[in-house]
Amino acid sequence: xxxxxxxxxxxxxPSYKGAVAVKGARFEPPFLESTVERLDAAASFxxxxxxxHIDRMDVGRSDLSGTIDIIDIAGRKVxxxxxxxxxxxxxxxxxxxxxxMARGRSKPPVTGSxxxxxxxxxxxxxxxxxxxxxxxxxxxxxxxxxxSMEVDGGRLDTAITYHRDEEDPxxxxxxxxxxx
Length: 180
What we know:
The protein is mostly beta strands and 180 residues long. It has helices at residues 89-92, 95-98; strands at 2-6, 15-27, 36-47, 49-59, 62-72, 77-84, 87-88, 111-123, 126-137, 141-151, 154-163, 172-179. The chain contains 2 helices and 12 strands. The termini are far apart.
């Protein structure tokens, strides 16, 4: 663990330099439904940018690995590539919280883009395989396009727009093509 933060008098946000690594960490984050049973990860920071590399993260029955490049720490902008061999939505986001997710937050939302690949999992009672998604996160919207997977015995190819703006009466939109 070696991390330094400094802020010049004429700068609004600090600059970071250093690295942090954890192996076998266990903790209960308030923003996840389940306990992180194991985390093997390393983060490095260089000025206003950073990189988080997750070798292994086990949350409930789910696992995750990948890289998150923090393009602008103060601006909350990221680029990510994440993968999972098994993911269950109930470990991360309970169904009853989905409708309020990312709405009404006081901080600016995280923006950026990336990809997610999940070999298999369960999303609110529906088993799926081979989920792949490209994600773009803007201030007021999150776009998953394309998002494809095998689900409930068929194939689903879709584009989803999630509306983050609490003033927007629409929560999400989807255009999908399903086949058996």
